[in-house]
Design brief:
Blueprint: E1 12-16, H1 20-33, E2 36-40, H2 43-51, E3 63-67, H3 75-84, E4 93-97, H4 103-113, E5 117-120, H5 126-144, H6 153-156, H7 167-171, E6 193-195, H8 197-203, E7 211-216, H9 226-239, E8 244-248, H10 252-264, E9 267-273, H11 279-287, E10 291-295, H12 299-312, E11 316-317, H13 323-329, H14 331-340, E12 346-350, H15 355-369, E13 378-384, H16 389-392, H17 414-423, E14 427-431, H18 433-447, H19 457-468, E15 477-482, H20 491-496, H21 507-514
Parallel strand pairs: 1-2, 1-3, 3-4, 4-5, 7-15, 8-9, 8-11, 9-10, 12-13, 12-15, 13-14
Antiparallel strand pairs: 6-7
Helix pairs in contact: 2-3, 9-10, 9-13, 10-11, 13-15, 14-15, 15-17, 18-19
Length: 517
């Protein structure tokens, strides 16, 4: 590929940095700037890259950012090799150094290497860094002409500085994700933690000093908590060279996988149980362009199918048995501690495939170990009575419940959920559909939070334990996770509600309908 044919001016940077923390920061900066990084951990890797002929479809770096004193091979040598490279010889180069240099020493390094400038380490804030890089690029263009016929960074497009850049950018040092993986994000996470005192009073009218909070995960881009894990899973899939992804789903995973696959330009295939997926979730998967295949069977049978497909075909599995999903979903626990200042006393949440309860426990445990929290919460996991294999201690062959998101008879993370409950000194229980629907109505009408029925299972379980006297909420700080937005599963609302009766467009008719006197 002729470098002058590049259609993405200053969109691909070659970066060499051996410090994991600085490398993570640079990746975050690249995400904000819309840059695709080619990340190397030392100068030797840069030399190996330069020694391999570029293929026609390889990204052509048009800017290089190198550590000056890297292990094994000095960054100066890597810089000189770039300057001699047939294709990349004319690109702007900045060198990073943590060493203080006099003006004459800086001039000597720049003269020896052919670099365009030096950056201090630790790195400055993004805006200052962008200005310093821009200055070097502009100077290089004035002296040598624009590489690849491109234009400089800030004159190409304004930089968008926003506060939240998604869970990977926010928590990358805590995620087991390759340092050079470029985030595929829809700016998921940072969901509301809403205090609900009226709901607390309704379910525990005789308790005092009981603070109840809802972690409203329906505020994620596709309307459910699944986006946290999916951003990490799809990011890893793209990094590993995947061209297609597959999942089995009762709905939320399907919509999330389809959206993030679309964001990454991947093909997405979702397997759903025929007639057992809410229309709002199916609509999402279809809108995002996924190939939806319905099977005459359960979710558990669908999961077995996609596992077989991913092991025999070039397609990546993105269900919660994918470890990257758990890595992403644990960030919700980080957010709760960041918001409250510590972990709550109890965390209550629905349990279906058991990936979420596994993730939360991992997140709280990691924050506890790193002293970001002083405690770990006790966990209350709640299953629907018609789909309660963990409570029953046996697989449910034909699970049935109105809570479609947790209609699962053989959870993939069964043992991890049992371990989390045991380690937290928590409790696993089942509630019937009537209790789930009561809690579902209550949280919407009392607090204005509209969730899908499965999301209310954690609230229903908490309410049942309080009512039966097995849990005293006095003095307790409790968080209930509501996992999906109500519009994901609107069928129950519409089936239960009376169709509005039209009235004439007159004030008298309105007054009569209002019955306000």
């Amino acid at each position: 590929m002729n470098p002058k044919e590049s259609s993405s001016p200053h969109r691909t940077w070659l970066i060499a940095e051996d410090d994991p923390g600085i490398a993570a920061l640079l990746l975050k900066y690249c995400s904000v700037l819309g840059i695709t990084p080619l990340m190397f951990s030392d100068g030797s890797e840069v030399l190996d890259y330069l020694a391999t002929p570029l293929k026609a479809d390889d990204p052509i770096p048009d800017f290089a950012l190198l550590d000056v004193f890297m292990p094994r091979v000095d960054g100066n040598e890597a810089c000189r090799a770039i300057r001699k490279h047939q294709t990349l010889g004319n690109i702007p180069i900045m060198l990073m150094t943590a060493f203080k240099m006099s003006r004459s020493e800086k001039a000597r390094v720049l003269a020896e290497t052919g670099a365009d400038g030096l950056l201090p380490k630790p790195l400055p804030p993004l805006r200052m860094l962008a200005e310093m890089i821009e200055s070097a690029i502009v100077q290089h263009e004035e002296e040598h002409g624009a590489p690849h016929g491109s234009i400089s960074l800030l004159r190409r497009a304004p930089i968008q500085f926003t506060g939240w850049q998604g869970v990977i950018a926010q928590y990358r040092p805590r995620l087991n994700l390759p340092v050079s993986a470029v985030p595929i994000t829809l700016l998921e996470g940072n969901t509301p933690l809403v205090r609900v005192p009226r709901l607390a009073a309704a379910i525990a009218p005789r308790s005092h000093d009981f603070s109840l909070w809802l972690k409203v995960e329906g505020s994620n881009p596709t309307g459910s908590f699944k986006d946290r894990g999916m951003t990490v899973a799809i990011t890893a899939a793209v990094h590993e060279g995947a061209k297609a992804v597959i999942c089995a789903s009762t709905g939320n995973t399907a919509a999330s996988a389809a959206a993030y696959a679309a964001r990454a330009g991947l093909r997405c295939v979702v397997i759903v149980p025929e007639g057992k997926i809410a229309q709002g979730k199916l609509a999402g998967a279809l809108a995002y362009g996924a190939q939806v295949i319905a099977i005459r069977g359960s979710f558990d049978e669908g999961l077995a199918l996609v596992q077989q497909a991913s092991s025999t075909m070039p397609i990546t599995l993105v269900n919660s048995i994918n470890p990257y999903r758990i890595e992403g979903q644990k960030t919700a626990a980080f957010e709760i501690v960041d918001a409250l200042g510590d972990a709550p006393d109890w965390l209550c949440l629905p349990v279906g495939n058991a990936g979420n309860i596994t993730s939360y426990w991992r997140g709280f445990s990691e924050y506890d170990l790193s002293a970001e929290a002083t405690q770990r919460p006790r966990l209350l996991g709640v299953q629907a009575a018609g789909a309660a294999p963990i409570v029953l201690g046996q697989i449910v062959e034909h699970p049935e419940t109105v809570a479609t998101a947790i209609r699962i008879g053989n959870p993939a993370r069964w043992q991890e959920a049992v371990d989390a409950i045991r380690e937290s000194d928590g409790h696993i229980m089942a509630v019937d559909d009537a209790a789930i629907l009561e809690a579902w109505h209550m949280v919407a009408k009392i607090e204005g939070v509209f969730v899908e029925p499965a999301s209310a299972a954690g609230i229903a379980g908490l309410q049942q334990r309080i009512a039966e006297g097995t849990f005293d909420p006095t003095g307790q700080r409790v968080v209930c996770v509501v996992t999906g937005h109500g519009l994901k599963d609107p069928d129950m609302v519409l089936a239960d509600a009376e169709e509005p009766k039209p009235i004439p467009p007159t004030f008298d008719a309105l007054a009569a309908a209002l019955k306000l006197g």
